[in-house]
Design the sequence.
């Protein structure tokens, strides 16, 4: 049981770190790119500005694809964790039901013995 908990902690830590990276990346890189493009246009580097727009567009396309695969990976991790949790919950529920049936049977047997 401890090994599973450590695995869950590792997964949660990994997802949290990756999420923090993408959150920072998603906020800072677009602003930096817009700032650089603004400065290029402001100082008259139109040819360089056009090249930067194309490179920036390609870069953001790449980042969007990477983010998409990261998001899919996180969703699959969550689905797997929920599936395992549900299976464990169902097993525990079945065990509790069996114990309850055994307790009821033992109680009934005890009452029958006391009657005789």
Sequence:
């Amino acid at each position: 049981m401890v090994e599973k908990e450590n695995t869950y902690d590792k997964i949660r830590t990994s997802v949290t770190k990756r999420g923090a990276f993408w959150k920072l990346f998603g906020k800072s890189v677009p602003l930096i790119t817009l700032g650089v493009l603004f400065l290029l246009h402001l100082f008259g580097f139109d040819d360089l500005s056009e090249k930067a727009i194309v490179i920036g567009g390609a870069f953001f396309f790449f980042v969007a694809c990477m983010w998409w695969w990261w998001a899919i990976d996180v969703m699959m991790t969550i689905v797997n964790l929920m599936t395992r949790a549900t299976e464990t919950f169902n097993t525990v529920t079945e065990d509790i039901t069996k114990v309850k049936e055994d307790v009821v049977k033992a109680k009934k047997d005890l009452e029958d013995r006391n009657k005789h």
User: Anything to note?
Assistant: The first helix runs from residue 2 to 42. The chain has one domain: 2-115. DSSP finds two helices and no strands in the chain. Residues 2-115 form one domain.
